[in-house]
Each structure stands twice: as C-alpha cells, then as structure tokens.
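Hey, can you fold this one?
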Amino acid sequence: MSAFESTTVLQETSGRQGARQPHRLFLALILGCLTGLGPFSIDMYLPSLPSLANSFHVNASLAQLSLTSCLFGLAVGQLIAGPISDALGRRRPLLLGLFVYAAAAAMCAKTTSIGLFIAFRFLQGLAGSAGLVIARAIARDYFGGKELTRFFALLMIISGAAPVLAPVTGGQILRFTSWHGVFVVLTLLGIALWLVVLLALPESLPLQRRVQGGLWETVGALGSLITNPEFMGYVLAQGFASAAMFGYIAGSSFVLQEEYKVSPQLFSLIFATNGIGLILAGQAAARVSLRWDEQRALAVALAVAAGGSLALLAAILGRMGLAMVLVSLFVVVAITGAIGTTCSSLALQKQGRVAGSASAWLGVAGMLIGALVSPLVGLGGGRIAVSMAIVILLCHYTGIFSYWLLSRRIRRSKYPVRLSPWPHTKSGDQ
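Sure. Predicted structure:
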C-alpha cells in the first residue's frame, strides 16, 4: 500500500470512528425510507390523477404535467443537494429538504389552482430529492468495499418496496377520501421522516472530510466527476438500466392489458411480482460479490440483462405467447436490482469525500435518460409491445457498451487519482 493510500484509509477510518453509527438495520430502515420518498411522491397519487383532473377542470395531459414537474424537481434537486451535503454535512441539507417537502405537500393539498399545484409539485420533487441523494452518500460515509455492496442490497429491500406499495396505498386512500388526502399523507410522511432524522440520525460526515473552498469548489467537484471515465462507466451502466425500467413502466400496462388482455388485477400482481424480483436480484448480487467481487457480479448482471432483453424482443416478435413474455419481463426488470446494487457500490467506493456529488450523478442519470426514452415507447405506431422491447434492448446494450468502453478498459492502477482541478480541494479519500 502506498503512502497516499495509507493516508486516505487513515482519514476515512478516523472519520467513521468520529461519527456515532446507528445500528445497521435501523440505519437501513431510515435510509430506505428516505430513498423511497421519491417513488412514493410519484406513484402514490397515480390512481388519483383522473379525479384530480376533474377537480381542477383540466384535461388529462395537464394533470400529468404535475407528474413531469415532480420528476424534473427530483432530478435537478439531486445536483443541488448532493454537492451541498459534501460541503455542509449530511444532516442540515437533509433536514431542510424534508421540511420544505412537507410544506410543499401540504400546499399541494390546499391549492385550488392547477398552475400552483404544478409549481408545488416541482418544489416537492426538488426538496424530496435530498432524501434520495443524501441517503446514498450517508451509506458511503459508513461503509466501503463489499460491505457497501451488502448494505446497498439491504437498502434495496426497503426502498424497492416503495414502487410496489405506493400505488396500492394511494388507491386505498381514495376509498376513504379524495386526492387531497394523498397529499395530506405525504405531508405527514415528510414530517415523520424529519423528526426521525432530527432525533435519531447523527451527522455521518465529520468536518475534516468535507469539501473545502465554498460554492465554487463544491460545483467543481461535480464537474470533476464527469472527467473520471471509470466513474462515468458505472453511472451510465446504471443510468441506462434505470431507463430500461422507465420504458417498462411506460409501456407495460398498455402491452399486457390491451395486447395480451390481462385484467387490471392480474397486471397489478405481475407488476408486484417483478418488483419483488428486483429486490431479490439485489440480494443475489451482494452474495455473488462476497464470493467473487463486485466487478464480476456486475459483469454477470449485464450479461443477463443483454440475454433477457433479447429474449423479450424475440418472444414478442415471434408471438411466443404471454408466458414467455412474462418470464422475459421478469428477467429484465429483476436484473435492474443487481445492476443498481453493484454499480452504486463501485461508483461510490472511490469517491468518499465527494460521495454526495457522486450520488447525485447516479440518481440524475437514470431519471434524465429515462425521461428521454420513455416517450419513445409510444411512438411505434403499431404494437406498443415491439417498441417497448426495442427501447429496453437498446437501453441495456447501450449501458453495457458504456461500461465496457469507460470502465473496463481503464487500467485502475495507472489512472491518476484527482478529485478536482480547483486548488482548495484535497485529493485524498478518492
């Protein structure tokens, strides 16, 4: 081990020892809920969109614009909250984000203007993004190497349940109240998480490990990560895998219910089953990483994604029946959990001092690429199933190519470790 590496390890070890670490399962529960705040904000009110449109006397597309504004807020907010948490610590930006999130959700429940509702939804996404990005950074503060991979797999058990439970929860709320009640529940959820963070989540980033130099230095850390080929290889591999998931979400209801005549109840069961598969694949990736290493686990996951997406397209084009389509869909959805677990761990392991900025790029990439490719699912003109399968296949193969081109071809021992070109940033703790 070189002198530089010894100093880096010493800095990280002393930093972790200086922070009081909560119990592992309790920490996973808190961070899982913070990570799931974004999916809950998006999916929980999906069943209420028709009644919301009627309440505001607007068409469906304008009501759906509130969903787009929340997604945009979630993406932009991560690029703000992540770097700020590297400079100011994790707790203050997280507490501020949760406070604004709860306030914005409360305003959504009270407003009578669709314009203001869309604006508050953007603010809600912007503030809620703090939970998404800072939760991953806190995990990196406490764990490294294979332990980080194991913790991300544990985190996925909790956060992965959010997309499955959110629409069901929203539907049950509508049995007793209107769409306003959904945002009252989101307000209470934001307040509850704010209290938990305030009372039970200690600061995980000591002063000596924070980025110094003010706002310009913080922004510089974001920019420097883009010039790191290995890091961007992991980001793009995960980003395109997430985009494939967006393609699945955008097209699966039309494909299964309209083309394969699946009932809404059976579709909900299929959707939930695929979500469980995503969680299980994340656990499997963690176990493989312990026996081999994260690089090999990721390579296997990408190979499965390539084969699964090809099988899905073949099943649809060859009209092989619903069973083959469902098996292929299960594979391409579930393997996202393995790719996300390994890519998140590998991308953050060398970015200890800028874990917030690194976490921001991990979150933003999937959302931005997903936002670009999701509309392509409906542009096929003919069978949506074919266009959905093509989008999923192209996303997976583009992610694989990005990983091979940027990450696998880097000689890590010779890659110059450099945090930022700005003079005030120390190059330790990469």
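Residues 89 and 205 are 6 Å apart (CA to CA). Let me know if you want another pass with a different chain boundary.
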